[in-house]
Amino acid sequence: MAQSTRKKPVSKTVNAAVSARIAAQDHFRTLRLGTPFQPRIDALAKTQDWYNWAGYRAPHSLWDEELEYFAIRSQAALFDISPMTKYRIEGPDAEAFLDRVTLRDVTKLKPGRVHYTAWCDDEGFVLDDGTLFRLSPTRFRLCSQERHLPWLLDSAIGFDVTVEEETEAVAGLALQGPTSFAVLRDAGFASVERLKIFDLADFPHDGGTVGISRTGFTGDLGYELFVSADRALSLWDRLMAAGQLRGIRAIGYTALNRARLEAGLIVANADFTTAEHAIRADRLRMPDEIGLGFMIDLEKSHFNGRRAILDARAKRKLRHVLVGLEIEGNIPAEHAIVYHKKSQEVGLVSAAMWSPMAKRNIAIASLARPYGDTMVDDLWVEIYAMRELQYQKLMKRAKVVARPFIKLDRRTANPPADF
Amino acid sequence: MAGQNGGCYAKFRAFGNRSRKNEERVSREDWAKMKAWDAIIIGGGHNGLVNACYLQRAGLDVLVVEKNDWVGGAATSRELTPGFLYSNCSYVCSLFRPEIMRDLELPRFGLQVISYEGGAVFTRDGDYLANYRDHDAHRREFARFSKRDAEAYDRYARDVTRQCRFIQPLLMRTAPDPTSLRPRDLGELLYLGKKFAGLSAEEMALTLRFWTMSISEFLDEYFETDVIKANFALSGIIGTALGPMSPGTAYVLLHHYMGEVDGSVGAWGYARGGMGAVTKALAAAFKASGGTIRTGAEVDHVLVGRGKAKGVVLAGGEELYGKLVVSNADVKRTFLKLVEEKELPDIFLRRVRNFKIRGSSGKVNIALDSLPEFPALPKDSPVYRGDMHFTDSVERMERAYDDWKAGRWSADPFLDMVIPTTLDPTMAPPGKHFMSCFVQYAPPKIAGAEWTDADRDGFAESVISQIAEYSPGFRDRIVHMEVRTPREIEAEVGLTEGNIFQGELTFDQLLFNRPVPGYAQYRSPVGGLYMCGSSTHPGGGVMGAPGRNAAAEILRDLAKSTSHMSAAHDVI
Questions:
Q1: What pLDDT is attached to residue A77?
Q2: pLDDT recorded at residue A3
Q3: In this predicted structure, what is the pLDDT of residue B375?
Q4: B41 lies in some domain
Q5: Residue B144: its chain A contacts at CB < 8 A?
């Protein structure tokens, strides 16, 4: 029996949406995108030391990772945060929606304010942490390390709200350090001195606006600036010009990472594994297990994971705790195993350094309760320090200490000081 | 050599003593010419050869008999036109267990597997959806179609990876017999139970859904865009006589994801020199350890005496004696064609008859005098070095399956197309290419009648015309073509109905139910007759695990050491 072949012609009519989609094909030729600031960063990249930040070519360092750190603590450092995932959340129900999704009470977040928050899946496991900017009564920006569009869209069912991913459209800069306020003032951002910590306001720039918030990831005086991608370079130039006499320097991630550790801040998928990426079920963490328990507001209305979190608290099912450690000596204990009485393994260091500001050997570690929680004595870390192809094995005493490891008055001083 | 002869003599004596009553049939002189092998393997496919290698290395004297003039079964590379090597049946490699490659020293015998670069589904609006190896490029590509789906991929990948990690350790273990009270079976059941109990409630639910759901419904839980769903759904139907909307196809996807290329889990690659390189290396390893292969030796039936296998009779009437016989053929061919019915229990026989091993696919291998161009695809796209598809919706896939149900080949077929010569310089002269097209669906019979040559040509035309729609001038590049419908695959390779997995991978035919309940541990109702093909746990694909696991069971029965067999690599 012969069978004929049905013809299914390839459509030749191409509409505008398809044309746009086809025009975007060539991304495969550039596996690491540049950010809107890339021309300026490339010009300063003396070390050519790049890493992949969410598909962007981002600098580990630009000229000297140690000196870049000191630029944060002594002058003003400019760090490109454009690759950070950004969502615009807008609508009459935006507040109620975000209150439902995130841990903290969004009804208390006033327009023009920012708070650090986190959000969980229905099992109470942390999906990510991030910053929530309230741009207006009905408009928010959520910034995070990982991507959450399906989660946000699914959660939006029943709310009059739109969620739009705007990572590429919005460029971001962190300007951090003691002279950061002076740089902004000298750059002509009038009345920027009125911004208190976690305040946010729009300022005119280049025929448009730039949103400036007094926030950051360094524990220092600092600001974050968000601008549409097409005004990114003019913003960079404006800050660099104004900062010339204030010691402004562009920096890479290594320096920023040191500053954030001194500030005791955690990084998703470095200090804990986010729920949508945890392949091993025992890697999932509840907020109470990674030091974010303070965000949980049981007075507010229902939020994702509430029942599971309450249940875990009531039944004492919280198995881990994230703590700050001070370790004797000066050898960084990065990824060292933590022991009780030098013998029983009780946890792991996720980040560690010698703190130039605190002059202490500091670390962030995750421990199995009760260690680090009710049992904090007799803790040790085993450091494997590779020195000229030999491990120097050190067993050093560790003390649980409060975070942040450093507290700088200039961070919150009002009005902010010149340096 | 002297030592080996002595061994044979000893075996002959032992065999002769037991078979004295047969003397009227076989003269003493004939006996002297004969050799009683420790094991005869029926079929030189990859599982037969893996099994043979492990037995030979355990000190057994093993013979592999293969009906074709070459070994390889469905993992062969043949030069059917000068200068071009085809991967005639299987065409990509991922599932083949690295533990086996290492145990049998296959790299020393020439096996190399090269990861490939991704792939694409061409869409009918002149675009394509690519899969890129780079995580961010993959996301950006999906975002061209849906930003939401682009960001849904991580959750999907996490869930699939979790399920693969659950199954992976089971591949290299004999499935427990749930009805048995033997300590080993209880231990294995406990292992399985513990693994399952180790899952969270959410994962347990997902596992059960995964093992029973349709791939279409499973993907609906993650994605909303048709072409993105089609892109993943294809792994749920390959080799299976089910459509993407049939329950059970989600597991088939998992089966295609649990392989690896050198630790890169889920990755697929090309065996350098075609898939025949796998069996070529196995055959060389087998011979190097002293094994014997007889090609052109088709087995007519298994010699059975007093409920025990004693050897095989070749098509020409020649009898070969073995203390045990291992069949690499599928369970239907083994027990419905090679063993007399009277030797088998009724229920077993009925279950073998009802074993689902339906033909669903065909293969078109093409020699090309130049690389085809796809106007939709940029010339420098890595997709040329990956797998290409033209079915851009789950519905089109299901429609293709509708044709199968009606006893027709799909008018608008689903193709899994690769051009291995973009990465493997050994298969065609420079500038020329070998293209492999796996084609679905192709029924075992056309409207109830046998395939004819005209049907075969019509089937080939459905494939060529589909490719030519996306690649103008494609026909002019064709130098030679090998078209294989289920008819050709069954006739040449011996796979019943041309089913590439030696039986469908549905939950009712997996683990301790594969191939049939009570006989999932590579043994059969006939003493000394074992199974080692893909009809057994853990199933098809060029994996080698059935052959290896069968060898472990045989050696256990012989109270021989299995210290030369690596345990499954840790999944940490």
A1: 98
A2: 63
A3: 97
A4: yes
A5: 21, 24-25, 27
Local structure of B230: helix, strand or coil: helix
In terms of domains, do A39 and A181 share one? Answer: yes
Same domain, A194 and A53: yes
The phi and psi torsions of B100 (rounded to 5 degrees) equal -70, -45
A279 touching chain B per CB within 8 A: yes
Say how many domains are in chain A.
2
Chain B residue numbers touching A52 (CB-CB < 8 A): 136
Same domain, B280 and B202: no
Together in a domain, A179 and A257? yes
A150-164, A239-253, B25-39: which range is least confident on average? B25-39
DSSP string, B67-118: SSSS-BTTS-EEEEETTEEEE-S---BS-S-HHHHHHTTGGGGT--EEE--E
The structural domain count of chain B equals 2
The pLDDT-based confidence of A13 (bands split at 50, 70, 90) is: low
Distance from CA of A308 to the nearest CA of B (A): 13
Asked if the structure places residue B367 within a domain, the reply is no
Q: Does any CB of chain B come closer than 8 Å to the CB of residue A319?
A: no
Give the model's confidence band at A9: pLDDT under 50 very low, under 70 low, under 90 confident, else very high: low
Known binding-site residues of A for substrate equal: 224
- Indicate yes or no: CB of A279 within 8 angstroms of CB of B165: yes
3-state helix, strand, coil split of chain A in percent (to 5) is 25, 35, 40
CB contact under 8 A, B136 and A55: yes
In chain B, which residues have their Cβ closer than 8 Å to the Cβ of A312? none
What is the domain range of residue A370? 319-401
Whether residue B18 contacts residue B518, with contact meaning beta carbons closer than 8 Å, is answered with no
| Residue A308 contacts B, CB cutoff 8 Å | no
Binding residues of A: 224
* Residue B6 resides in a domain: no
In angstroms, the CA A393 to CA A386 distance is 9
CATH number at residue B63: 3.50.50.60
Contacts of B140 in chain A (CB under 8 A): 27, 55
A130 within a domain of the structure (yes/no): no
CB-CB neighbours of A33 under 10 Å = 18
Is residue A316 exposed (0-12), middle (13-18) or buried (19+ Cβ within 10 Å)? exposed
A1 contacts in B (CB within 8 Å)? 446-447, 449, 452, 455
Cβ–Cβ below 8 Å for A7 and B465: yes
- pTM for the whole thing? 0.92
Residues A69 and A182 in one domain: yes
Q: Show residues of chain B in contact with A7, CB under 8 Å.
A: 465
- Domain assignment present for B317: yes
Q: With an 8 Å Cβ cutoff, are A3 and B137 in contact?
A: no
Same domain, B286 and B255: no
A179 and A40 inside one domain:
yes
CA–CA min distance B469, chain A (Å): 7
Say yes or no: A17 contacts chain B, CB-CB below 8 A. no
| Cα distances (Å, whole numbers) of residue B495 to B8, B79, B338, B534 | 34, 21, 14, 10
- How do residues A328-366 score in pLDDT, each as one tens digit? 999 999 999 999 999 999 999 999 999 999 999 999 999
Of B234, B259, B284, the residue at which a domain comes to its end is: B259
B215 shares its domain with B291: no
A192 and A51 in one domain?
Answer: yes
A411: confidence class by pLDDT, cuts 50, 70, 90 = very high
CA–CA dist A369, A293 (Å, integer): 15
Q: Considering only CB atoms, which chain A residues are within 8 Å of B459? A: 3
Q: What distance in Å separates residue B571's CA from the closest CA in chain A? A: 11
Longest dimension (CA), chain A: 90
Interface list for B 534-563 with A (CB within 8 A): none
Q: How far is A95 from chain B (nearest CA, A)?
A: 22
Query: Where is B398: in which H helix or E strand?
Result: helix B394-405
Residues A252 and A364 in one domain: no
Return residues 69-128 of B near A (CB < 8 Å): 124-128
DSSP code for B335: I
Q: Which of A262, A285, A306 is the last residue of a domain?
A: A262
**Which domain covers residue B252, as residue numbers?**
158-224+242-259
Residues B217 and B278 occupy one common structural domain: no
**CATH code at A207?**
3.30.1360.120
